[in-house]
Amino acid sequence: MGAKASEFKVVDSFEMRIAGIESVDLELLHALSISVGWPHRSEDLQFLREFGRGYVALDEIGRLTGSAMWFPHGDNFATIGMVITSPRLQTNGTGRWLMEHVLAECEGRDLRLNATRAARRLYHALGFQPVRTIYQCQGIARRPTDLPALPEGTAVRRLGSEDLAAVAELDAKAFGVARTELIDKLLVQSAGYGLFRGGSLRAFALCRPFGKGHVVGPVVAEGDAEAIAVVQPHVAEHQDQFLRLDTPFETGAFAIFLSQSGLAVFDTVLAMSKPGNAGAAAVSAAAGPSLYGLVGHALG
Ligand SMILES: CC(C)(COP(=O)(O)OP(=O)(O)OC[C@H]1O[C@@H](n2cnc3c(N)ncnc32)[C@H](O)[C@@H]1OP(=O)(O)O)[C@@H](O)C(=O)NCCC(=O)NCCS
Questions:
Q1: CATH homologous superfamily for 8-107?
Q2: Whose CA is closest to atom 16 on ligand 1?
Q3: Which mean pLDDT values do the consecutive 10-residue runs of the chain (300 residues) have?
Q4: I want to staple 159 with a disulfide (CB 3.0 to 4.6 A). Which of 16, 30, 90, 163 is the partner?
Q5: Which residues pair with 209 in a beta bridge?
Q6: What distance in angstroms lies between residue 94's CA and the mean position of ligand 1's atoms?
Q7: Domain 136-293 falls in which CATH fold?
Q8: Residue nearest to atom 42 of ligand 1 (CA)
Q9: How far is the CA of 118 from the centre of ligand 1 (A)?
């Protein structure tokens, strides 16, 4: 994406200009995300804005008509999210224009994103390839009756700030790229449970306020039993409350556990990637820990 994208664009007879996402009022950004039916609270958008960078499109009188963001994880990798065009102006090229600005800024980085159905064609045209489906599971949490016993020789306990290094290391193995800064920020606002064997962290699940309730993620484990062991305490703590978890697992014991916990599949997105020339690792290898729950669609 070498060519510099234009700063101005005529969209449906409006002249749009591009601006940095930090320059707009948070409530305008919130209104834009509500206009496409997204559940984010202002606080969720503020968190994304503190961690990421990006652009907005504004019309002649300063109305916000689109956004696109990227989130750096180290120097060689980024995730992309918050790609929105105001419904009344969609299919006029604004999404592509905003994405061209993001891609120019991310040049050389390996990129990942989670595409809604509406956005797949756009990302495909920009060189992104499908990786796997992500299942957005959510609902009113209830404690499942039949829980498997903890894997032998393991114990689950609450995580604290002293566990940051171990959590970040395990997350990096599953995600394929270290995102210590993000994990550090998440630990501050999340409750976390870890599964330990002989003092070493084998699996963990964080849970924080998001959207209509709470979201469980990231979740990293080496198998369904471990994943269930670290997610189950969050389900119990949010009994009768809205809970969400985005997972690549459609079948198996973990998927059954989610559905028995009241978290039904609500929607899907398609994880897509675009290689830069940085050689950041691909999505988790066959062996070792896997990402059972995403931080969120924008953050991977
Ligand atoms: C996805 C979204 C950002 C696209 O924005 P947009 O301004 O409409 O996109 P563009 O007009 O630049 O269109 C980009 C491409 O997608 C195609 N496209 C756009 N809307 C489409 C639709 N409803 N059906 C099929 N193709 C569509 C366009 O034809 C264009 O293809 P081309 O470049 O090959 O001509 C917008 O639909 C949106 O905000 N949707 C709701 C929020 C969302 O799902 N965001 C994506 C998060 S991953």
A1: Gcn5-related N-acetyltransferase (GNAT) (3.40.630.30)
A2: 122
A3: 77 89 97 97 97 96 96 95 97 96 97 97 98 98 88 94 96 96 96 96 98 98 96 97 98 97 98 84 67 98
A4: 163
A5: 214
A6: 8
A7: Aminopeptidase (3.40.630)
A8: 84
A9: 6
